[in-house]
């Protein structure tokens, strides 16, 4: 059988770095192959070569037996390659059906490409794939997860030979991932090969037949994930016994083991930092009340539409809530407030004014100047100046209207160098432009910036999206240190292991309301998963 994808001795360098060295691999029809490696290992570079976005310096790429000689995205597409990225390729003003058939719109019997023709055809396809979406709905209003399903349907409609997914689940919630995987298995059943990049090893064990591990741009190993070859699933629907272990994969990826011991917690609660009162989220009619304490890590868990990201944005003062209010309590005024009982009536009045009620947060500039850091979920748009260097991005202080860059050569550089070293950012040096960093390393730059920043409160939406499992644990350690120093930390996370590792408290959210509050320290990832899947059913 001709492999669907065959790379022979592919190498590629960039100015200042060698991203791939002599990589060979081959994927069969109907195989789901995971591509693994630490941040900067060369995964996205390999994918960009296969999709024709960039050319290899040497070596060859064959797709379904045909060589990709002059690589362009069109040439790769013509050979049957489709890629799905985190940033969705969706025309927001068209219907679901038109998006499915974006490349080749179906025609009616008079030869005209009509919306009606597309809807009719898409209905059957979506049904066959088990995708529960209205083909006539506007694609723009779909959640990120749903848009991704539309993209998969598009790949099927184009009869893709190879579908590539570069960290497709980085911002998906587990029950959204379950839907995605159902569709991926249908693709597999059709004979489509899938190349799947992920830092979530539990997903790899769930979906992949084999894994290819890259380290420092070199091919380290091909490993069977499942005994008994790919595509053969037991009739019961349970997957066959894995042929390897998580530890083995991790050791191949990093060249050493990664310790996953549970980290020690700070002691909770040192007084309120943020208080959201009667805020309404999404289309919910029931208000949410949340208080975040100094010294605690609060996790908000829930997929798109759950209100978790929206609540985080409100807590960070991005916009005033639709109803209710968000107040920030200065840590300094807490000391005054705690003197309340013993102090004179006059000073307790002052303390009450500043301490107990706090400042109304309704714009980001005010929140930022109060010491509330915010990492939004859309990094590329909101988080980084891609054209600028690492050092400039680290010194970036978001302000009203514009982003100001403070340049203070020696001291800033030293701090940046330290931050780069601490955060394990893989870069030539701190003047390297951020756009030339791998995805995970860009994420580390944003986090390093906030960790440098002297904030009192951190609101982080999916802080470790795209970050490899080794660096993740470094970040968890840092977050717990910050909380131990008295900072209030709020994370939005779809990673139960992450929540179990760092959260003191967990709010499970759905449809704009808080469905449960759990004690993070005593909730395992497995328990969180069971709990939310039960709620989703
Ligand atoms: N345009 C570029 N200019 C310079 N260096 C680049 C460029 N693109 C990628 N690199 C470098 O190539 C190496 C591999 O990057 P790549 O994006 O392939 O990593 P990755 O395995 O996808 O990592 P991640 O898990 O963080 O996404 C990195 O060291 C990166 O800095
Ligand atoms: Mg990448």
């Amino acid at each position: 059988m001709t492999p669907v994808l065959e790379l022979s001795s592919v190498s590629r360098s960039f100015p200042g770095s060698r991203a791939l060295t002599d990589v060979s691999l081959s994927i069969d029809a109907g195989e789901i192959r995971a591509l693994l490696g630490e941040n900067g290992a060369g995964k996205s570079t390999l994918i960009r070569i296969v999709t024709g976005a960039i050319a290899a310096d040497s070596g060859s790429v064959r797709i379904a037996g045909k060589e990709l000689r002059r690589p362009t995205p069109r040439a790769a597409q013509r050979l049957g390659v489709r890629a799905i990225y985190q940033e969705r390729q969706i025309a927001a003003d068209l219907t679901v059906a038109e998006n499915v058939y974006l490349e080749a719109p179906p025609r009616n019997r008079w030869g005209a490409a009509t919306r009606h023709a597309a809807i009719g055809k898409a209905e059957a396809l979506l049904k066959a794939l088990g995708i529960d979406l209205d083909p006539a709905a506007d694609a723009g209003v779909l959640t990120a997860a749903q848009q991704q399903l539309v993209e998969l349907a598009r790949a099927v409609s184009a009869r893709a030979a190879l579908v590539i997914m570069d960290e497709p689940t980085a911002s998906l919630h587990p029950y959204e991932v379950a839907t995605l995987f159902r569709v991926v298995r249908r693709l597999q059943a059709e004979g489509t090969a899938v190349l799947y990049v992920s830092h979530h090893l539990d997903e790899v064990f769930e979906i992949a037949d084999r894994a290819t591990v890259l380290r420092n741009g070199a091919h380290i190993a091909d490993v069977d994930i499942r005994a008994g070859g790919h595509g053969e699933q037991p009739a019961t629907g349970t997957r066959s016994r894995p042929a390897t272990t998580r530890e083995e994969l991790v050791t191949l990826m990093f060249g050493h083991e990664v310790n996953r011991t549970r980290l020690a917690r700070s002691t909770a609660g040192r007084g309120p930092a943020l208080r959201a009162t009667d805020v309404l989220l999404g289309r919910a009619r029931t208000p949410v009340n949340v208080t975040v304490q100094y010294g605690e890590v609060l996790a908000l868990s829930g997929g798109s539409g759950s209100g978790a990201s929206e609540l985080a944005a409100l807590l960070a003062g991005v916009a005033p809530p639709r109803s209710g209010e968000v107040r920030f309590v200065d840590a300094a005024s807490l000391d005054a407030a705690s003197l309340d009982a013993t102090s004179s009536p006059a000073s307790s009045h002052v303390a009450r004014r500043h301490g107990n009620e706090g400042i109304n947060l309704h714009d980001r500039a005010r929140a930022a100047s109060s010491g509330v850091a915010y990492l939004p979920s859309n990094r590329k748009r909101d988080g980084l100046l891609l054209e600028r260097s690492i050092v400039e991005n680290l010194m970036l202080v978001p302000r009203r209207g514009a982003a100001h860059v403070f340049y203070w050569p020696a001291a800033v550089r030293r701090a940046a160098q330290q931050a780069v070293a601490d955060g394990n950012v893989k870069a030539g040096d701190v003047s390297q432009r951020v756009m030339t960093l791998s995805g995970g390393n860009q994420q580390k730059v944003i986090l390093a910036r906030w960790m440098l920043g002297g904030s009192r409160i951190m609101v982080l939406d999916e802080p470790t999206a795209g970050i490899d499992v080794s660096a993740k644990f470094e970040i968890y350690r840092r977050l717990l240190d910050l909380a131990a120093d008295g900072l209030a930390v709020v994370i939005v996370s779809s990673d139960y292991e992450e929540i179990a590792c760092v959260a003191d408290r967990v709010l499970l959210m759905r449809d704009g309301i808080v469905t449960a509050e759990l004690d993070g320290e005593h909730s395992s990832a497995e328990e969180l998963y069971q709990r939310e899947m039960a709620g989703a059913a």
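The pocket of magnesium ion (ligand 2) is lined by residues 43-44, 438-439 (CB under 6 Å). Residues 129 and 183 are 6 Å apart (CA to CA).
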